[in-house]
Design a protein that fits this description.
5-stranded mixed beta sheet; alpha+beta; Immunoglobulin-like; 3-stranded antiparallel beta sheet
């Protein structure tokens, strides 16, 4: 069996090996790119600013949820559109209220966002 030596390596061999390495790298990058949403898990992004002290009893909640199959606001399931945009309202109790948004993905992972409010009517 002939031994491989530096003198046996040709330009064609270098090009073939380099092409295979590049192709494997591109395939690996593409697989990671496509799996990025599975890797990240569920995401909740609230839009707007929410002051702790509120003078109105009803507070609108707006945001975007990504990579989810279900989202709840204080334990009550809410809906999103096909882009993941949600909009709902919470009614504040007199005094201190904690709002909790929970989102779940298809693998059972969850994320939670909480905001605290104090209702002080004018």
């Amino acid at each position: 069996m002939p031994r491989l030596s530096v003198s046996n390596i040709t330009f064609g061999t270098i090009v073939r090996v380099g092409s295979i390495v590049c192709l494997c790298g591109i395939i690996a990058w593409y697989m990671l790119f496509q799996a990025r949403n599975l890797i990240n898990g569920p995401v909740i992004e609230l839009q707007g600013t929410y002051d702790v002290v509120q003078t109105e009893r009803v507070v609108p909640i707006h945001g975007i949820a990504r990579n989810i199959v279900k989202i709840t606001l204080d334990g009550r399931e809410i809906t999103t559109d096909k882009e993941g945009v949600f909009s709902d309202e919470i009614v504040l109790e007199s005094g201190y209220t904690v709002m909790t948004l929970e989102a779940f993905d298809r693998f059972g992972r969850e994320t939670e966002v909480t905001r605290e409010f104090v209702f002080k009517p004018e």
